[in-house]
Amino acid sequence: MLGFFVTLVVQRWWETFHCFGWIDNSALYVATYINGTDERTRMIRRNIVRYAVLLEAMVFRDISPVVRRRFPDDHAFKTAGFLTEQELSAMESVTSPHAKYWLPIHWAFHLIKEAKASGLIRTERAVELVQARLLEFRTSLAKQRAAHGVPVPLAYTQVVFIAVRSYLALTMIGQQYVIGDRHKEILTPIDIYIPLLSILQLLFYLGWVKVAEGLLNPYGDDDDDFECNWFIDRNLQVGFAIVDAAIGKEPPLEKDVFWNEITPLPLYANGVLNVPIHVQNDSIPKPIRLVEKIIRSSFNSDRNNSTVAEHNLESQGNRFD
């Protein structure tokens, strides 16, 4: 029973972690398909990212007490920069008996529609792709909210914790040494004075229980809990960098350093030159030695300017051991 419970808790914790909203994919699609460097285009891209991160902050506020202390109400979003004054008024003007998680994505979709109408997005397929990435972001956060709203049944948790502690308490009494001659042939001093198996049971069972208790609610302020505020700040910073700071700073198209090589041999650092490489595309992996050992003082696009410290070219027939 304890094993099933710990497996359930760890599985929920792992699936919850994978449902964290990462803005990278959505921001990359926004930056790719909404073209332009003028101020209005930049505003559209940045606002779409900001609305997505606002959704994440709204969800985390309802499931994490740490984020709740940071954003006690909607006005705190405006103070932190996630909302403008007009956006806060628009949010308050919408009447809904439920949480308005859908509202920031609704605003983002409206901006996508405006971008398509003004020619910033060229095709309908691009609109579908950008919207699909935002929907994936929203769906992952919805799964997190649902998992927090429907926790592990309390009765199951209490039964497991009470059963384990009761078993350990009875074990401390039931496995004590009883003075008598019944098992004198098999008893040893370590069995009498040091109950080794009982100590191991106590450590393992209580350890499992502590693991389950620590992972049961990972949204608190313990050291092992998720850093929800960090996720919010990180997504805002990375999202703005993708859709704004990186636009127009792409490197020029040029030939790579392996342009004239049919089978390129990337360089290795000095400390790994003698490490064997195991070929994985054969039925039996065979270790091979480096055919060419090269140490560069600096790695640049011109291979001819590199410093050759060691050159050991072996024959093709001696490559395999």
Automatic annotation (TrEMBL):
Query: Could you cite one Gene Ontology molecular function of this protein?
Result: chloride channel activity
Signal peptide boundaries = none
As for subcellular location, the record says:
Cell membrane; Membrane
Gene Ontology CC, one term? chloride channel complex
What's the main place this protein lives?
A: membrane
Pfam families found in the cross-reference section: Bestrophin
Keyword terms of this UniProt record:
Cell membrane, Chloride, Chloride channel, Ion channel, Ion transport, Membrane, Transmembrane, Transmembrane helix, Transport
Q: How does it sit in the membrane?
A: Multi-pass membrane protein
- Similarity section: Belongs to the anion channel-forming bestrophin (TC 1.A.46) family. Calcium-sensitive chloride channel subfamily.
**PANTHER family per the record?**
BESTROPHIN, BESTROPHIN HOMOLOG
- Function description: Forms chloride channels.
- Protein name per Swiss-Prot or TrEMBL: Bestrophin homolog
Annotated source species: Plectus sambesii
Q: What is the lineage of its organism?
A: Eukaryota, Metazoa, Ecdysozoa, Nematoda, Chromadorea
